[in-house]
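Onboarding guide, step 5: your first structure request.
Type a short instruction followed by the sequence, for example:

Predict the 3D structure of this protein.
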Amino acid sequence: MPDHSDRTPRASPSVRTPVPWWLPVPAVLGGLFVVVPVLAMVGRVDWGSFGALVTSPASLTALGLSLGTAAAATGIAFVLGYPLAVLFARSTSRWIGAARALVLLPLVLPPVVGGLALLAAFGRLGVVGAWLDDHGLRIAFTTAAVVIAQTFVAMPFLVSSIEGALRVGGDRFERVAATLGASPTRTFLTVTTPRVLPGILAGLVLCFARALGEFGATLTFAGSLQGVTRTLPLEIYLQREIDPDTAVALALVLVVVALVVIGASALRTRTALA
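The system replies with structure tokens like these:
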């Protein structure tokens, strides 16, 4: 007779997991805590002059610079951060914990401190920057400095997201592929990467959104030069003192861009999981 002792009951897909009756109360409060300030900002927008405010040359230049540098920072973060996430999730070395703590440090480090650290490394008198300056390459207070600052603060979001997905998925399929003769590189490209794709997409979105909103490290390391390093967050900060209406309008643009990115990522992630 067949042994049914290992069978576990499975819930029907149409049956919802029950939640405590009180759980929606703090959940709604948490949602309102985020939504109300955004709606309050929307209410302060001068809609009559909104178009003129957000299409001024300074605003468009700052927006274009932000999108371009954030995209570049996300690409660099993926190239460097994805291998880090795989090593963190798969390695059994006792030093991995210390390495992870150092890589994820920008998550809790004040952005201004991160900017000072980048200056110490890549500034004209920095450890690496002095050598680069001797060879005619200057990084600080250039557009490249913006990309570096954004990558520095945003890459940990990508690494932690992908590492979490790798740990949840386990490595059973990778071990099966290895026993079938697949090389480590082929296993990485054809087994690991497709399985962790939703985590990669989520990490890319978090990374891009964080890079797009980066302020402190950028201001400290790259400065605020019109058309060179003044990204949209820096333009908003500048306009806050000069023209509050423009600052609010640009802030709303930043919110809309972030919502579009997050919404597009949610659709892609749902498609990848289907």
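Each response can be followed by summary notes, for example: The CA atoms of residues 54 and 250 lie 6 Å apart.
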